[in-house]
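Target protein
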Amino acid sequence: MMPESTQHPNNLTPNEYQELAIESAIHPALIAANFFHIEGATVYDYLFISKDLPRTNPGRISSGFLRRYQHAELGGWWVSGLDPYKNWERMEWGRFKPTHPRIDSKGRFIKYESPPKIPNRVTYFDVPDCIWDKVAKRYGIKRYNSPLALRLRDRSRPLNFWEWVLAHPEIPIILCEGEKKAAALLSLGFVAIALPGIWNGRVGKKDFDARLHPDLMPLAQPGRKIQILFDHETKPKTRWAVFQATIRTGKALEAVKCQCEVILLPGPEKGVDDFASARRMDADFLLTAIIDDAKSLDDYRRSFFISNRGLSKKYKPHVRVHARYLSDAIKLPLSGLVVLSSDMGTGKTELLRKWRKENPNVKFLNNGHRVNLLKNLSERLETDMYSELSYGDLAKAKALSITIDSLHKLNTEALEYGCVFIDEACQYLTHLLHSKTCREYRAQILEVLEYIVYNAQLVVIADAHMDDLTVDFFLAMRPQGEEPLIFVNDWRNGERIIHWYEGKDSSTLVAQISASLMTGQKIMVVADSKKFIKKLEKSLLMSMRVEVASSSSSASLALLS
């Protein structure tokens, strides 16, 4: 806590200074240059700057409007930055944090007030020399502060911090939500600009006239790296809003040829100011590592959907178990849509094999997207492979395994099955909707799939990372009113040791693989070259299962045992 007798700059109260300096880790010099306490009628001089405010005939602000902001007279702190369009003079627009906030119509506190009836601006802080030096040191740029250089500088108009940043496009700029967060970053020597909200880095409507906020344009130079750092959120709805705002802001940055990256806080602290305050002495080191690990916009988009896999509260499990093998813990019904959310290697296929033995006369379809997986399942589930059957034999098959790519080839008369099993259902759906191999016949495949899923007595979809979207997709194909039966297995397989190798010398890698194989271990090798996998196969004098992870030959894996 700050001593009560301490005199704080700009009439800031002890609680306000504590919030800024201690709880948000803002440098005292930045506080002194940018944050002010205001109260009483003076507050209206700061907030009521728009000419569009409702007024009475004498020109006074309407009484209803004054009542809405009456709480502001009790005081709070005000922050405003510099205006890039007015020679970096103090901006009239700013933000006010009242000591006693008002409550909106939904019962929520409005923590910050911006001048009403006027477009939001962004905040370029007035950066003092001590912070400027921190930034220059971080990015290895020399500032000339000798007595002679200072005297020469005084004879002309002094260079502004932001003009200096403009002259150094190699310095990355961080956009964050809120002035305290930007000030905390500046205090550590990162260049940061404050947005009043996650949506305020861009203006216009989506897919119509969306573009970068005009205040950001002066520093949005082609090639400049601009990084987006928003809060660490845990609520799904808020996380989705942050994701959308990040993507749209990023697209607006890329439209003006900036390089956009996204910085992700690890939590549990929500904002970067909270993170810096909690870490204190380690904040510089930790944030440097986090910022260096920023993702490209495309990587962020992909990682968001991967991290959001899993079933939400929308699909609560009917049965939840913690079992090494599902086949020992649950029993499948004879009808309905069954969802199996269980880790790899927990007996999902064995559960279906057991069901098949109990119901040998039920016509069975095993449908998948990977040929190797399908062949393996075909052997374990004792089904025929579509690719190995003649037309005459196909009509007689009671149990069939077929890839999604070939589904449209099935005869209409053979489309009714008592049980349909789809493993790796999430990847199956992605392949169905996006794969080039399904492009030509995608409409026919979807038509056949819908018919099969609708008419099957039992449909079982399984995945280690089952998600809402996949359940939604298959549920929409089932008879109206049917509810899915959800089985969730909380068992997780043990951790695996991962060895990472770089460089052209692969001798150590081959030796490690050979040693592991000699002890009877199963090995998976992932490489960015199919040529290397083939070379490895030859050097080990053994056969292995090779799978290509993409349509190109640049990513492959080998399974050895």
User: Anything to note?
Assistant: Confidence is low (pLDDT under 50) at residues 550-555.
